[in-house]
Design brief:
It is a single chain. Helix content is 20%, strand content 30%. It has 323 residues and is of the alpha/beta class. The chain folds into 3 domains: 82 residues, Ubiquitin-like (UB roll) (Roll); 90 residues, Translation factors (Elongation Factor Tu (Ef-tu), domain 3, Beta Barrel); 123 residues, Rossmann fold. The strands form 3 sheets. The chain has a 6-stranded antiparallel beta sheet with strand order 9-8-11-6-7-10. The protein binds flavin-adenine dinucleotide (FAD) and FE2/S2 (inorganic) cluster (FES).
Length: 323
């Protein structure tokens, strides 16, 4: 049984247990959110011993070289001494300057930052609950040159952070966030490359940023953007997307619903099947998929099978912890 040394104390780690699970079982409060190796809230540093390769996936080379790892996905194979990371992003204070419902279950928050946040459109920030230790990731729908950060938050039943942002946070309120992180964003590697973008639910938040960033940078290849929802009530930004499609002849916007009639200019059915039948060949395409983790996972497979190269598939799965 590997021993974890943390803040001068030793803890036995059960087989198949992550470091985060082990320390939590022993009553320690380690910052965490997604518990899936995505948000980097649990970033830790190995002082002695080797973190697993799995727990360093997605970290910058410079962090890997210094022994940083993600405690929520690190199942140690041998004894390890660790510390909570001292390089995580600094807290940035924000003020809610606008709050508006975009549909029945999605609220848009516009936040003004106390200091400039360095980010690329499509990245996410980690929002800190003002009254508890809770941290949750939200993708940025805004562009770095805009005045405010824009978040689209879906209400999750019994959700602690989404409940707070929907019901309690009001214009003028302040909280902290850290960021930005994530590698699902536009790069100018080929301005002619056709782009397929599939947003599921509030997956439209990063996609709205990525799409506008691509257009601002002069992307000339065709852009097909699908926004998928269970029902028409779950769609939003229909006018904004149609306006972008009218302004840019390379942009094709296709709203999709699983149930009920197809919306104007859109399709009805399972999003994976819609993409499969509408895009039989994706050889040479760049793909972006954001939102519900299970659907994002399925869509990545579909796009790969249709010929998109893995390095050309960018994704932002909104993973969450079951606990
Ligand atoms: C990189 C990243 C980007 C994200 N971007 C966005 C975004 O732009 N907009 C957005 O709305 N969300 C986004 N999320 C999801 C967000 O971080 C939270 O997981 C979500 O808001 C729920 O948090 P909560 O505290 O309200 O719910 P919790 O209190 O954590 O959960 C309450 C219950 O609901 C379950 N649950 C949590 N989330 C879901 C879900 N999505 N579907 C079904 N059950 C769920 C939990 O397992 C738990 O049982 C993102 C997540 C990641 C990792
Ligand atoms: S990466 Fe560990 S909690 Fe999100």
């Amino acid at each position: 049984m590997p021993i974890i040394t943390f803040e001068g104390h030793q803890y036995d780690c059960r087989q198949d247990e992550t470091i985060l699970e082990c320390l939590t079982r022993h009553g320690l409060l380690i910052p965490s959110s997604c518990q899936n190796g995505v948000c980097q809230t649990c970033l830790s540093k190995a002082v002695k011993g080797e973190p697993t390769a799995e727990s360093q996936k997605g970290l910058k080379d410079t962090l890997v070289a210094q022994g940083y790892f993600l405690a929520c996905v690190c199942k140690p194979q041998a004894d390890i001494e660790m510390a909570v990371a001292d390089v995580s992003h600094a807290d940035v204070g924000v003020t809610v300057v606008e709050k508006q419902m975009l549909n029945e279950s999605v609220v848009r928050l516009r936040l003004s930052c106390d200091e400039t946040l360095d980010y690329v459109a499509g990245q996410f920030v980690n929002v800190k609950h003002p009254m508890t230790e809770l941290v949750r990731s939200y993708s940025l729908a805004s562009l770095p040159d805009e005045d405010c950060l824009e978040l689209h938050v879906k209400r999750v039943p019994d959700g602690r952070m989404s409940g707070y942002l929907h019901d309690q946070a009001k214009v003028g309120d302040r909280f902290l966030l850290t960021g930005a992180a994530g590698d699902c964003f536009y790069t100018e590697k080929d301005l002619q490359q056709p782009l397929l973008m599939v947003a599921v639910g509030t997956g439209l938040a990063p996609m709205y940023g990525i799409l506008r960033d691509a257009l601002q940078r002069g992307h000339r290849g065709d852009i097909h953007i699908y926004h998928a929802s269970l029902a028409v009530q779950g769609l939003y930004y229909i006018d904004e997307m149609n306006t972008l499609a009218q302004q840019h002849e390379n942009v094709h916007y296709i709203p999709c619903v699983m149930h009920g009639e197809a919306p104007a200019g859109g399709q009805q059915g399972d999003i994976q099947q819609i993409v499969q039948s509408s895009m039989p060949s994706l050889r040479g395409w760049r793909v972006y998929v954001c939102g519900d983790p299970a659907i994002v996972h399925g869509l990545k497979q579909t796009c790969f099978m249709a010929g998109a190269a893995m390095p050309d598939i960018y994704s932002d799965p909104f993973v969450f912890s079951e606990k």
